[in-house]
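Take our chain:
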Amino acid sequence: MKSTKTFSISFLPRKSKADPKLGIIYARISINNTRVEYSIKRKVPFETWDQKRGKCTAQDQHSKIINQYLAQVSSEIFESYDQLRKEGVLISADTIKARWLGEDCNGQSLLIAVEYHYKIAVTTIKIGTLKNYRTTEKYIKLFLKKELKVDDIYLNQLRFSFITKFENFLRLHKPVDHQRKMENNTVMKHLQRFRKIITLAVRLEWIDRDPFANYKAKYVRNERVYLRQSELDAIENKVFSIDRLEYVRDLFVFSCYAGLSYIDVIQLRMDQIVLGIDGGNWIFTSSSLSENYLMTHKRQIIFCNSDL
């Protein structure tokens, strides 16, 4: 026999000790013979409160904002109840409240998942990749704040639409500094890192379904363009007024002559530069099949690849 549950949400003000004319609004969750109340941290003048309708009657801006917030809270509590109902767990006023506040195991938030992933990744991922995850985290927070007007969101609220909206946000985002808008593959990289965070949350059973299940990344294959010697000379001789850009230029030119990747140049150590049998300096790295001969020419450092 199927049991019938009587579920309801109501709001009521309690007297404030600081000002008797103001009431602190509480949300009351009732189901069958259990109920619980929780302050939603909003105050309202008693004279503007309709006890029967559970909302403000005044037409001023403050009252309108209060009523909008009450509608939002009511929707969140009902969604928490609906989640528990679909999961087939024992439902009480306390379990609904715990789910609403994110205090149960299934109420983890997106930013908690982001930080948890980072704590695990910091022991296994290279520092350059970790920095990329932090950049993705920055854009997730910016998206939540600008588009959804919230600081965080529960994992169980994530839907396929969240991903597509986040993708569109990245494509349209205009950086305030010197950077250009993101190209397609950059957007896909951010979504790839976001997907790994969500996959971890799925494995931890923090979320029942994977919102990325029907999402397919769309990379664009780019043909690599090589610099001509004249172009490399122009970059090498370019003078910048900003020290940071001078440093970036030197790293780039260094990597071009050395035939090393950016990450190998960044991680290059003095003990990897050794004296060769020919009396010259050589760079030995485990990521390269060839050694790189180092010599000084004027103010530049020139590298010649030599297969040994």
About this structure: The first strand starts at residue 7 and ends at 15. DSSP finds nine helices and nine strands in the chain. The chain has three domains: 7-101, 110-203, 229-306. The first helix runs from residue 61 to 87.
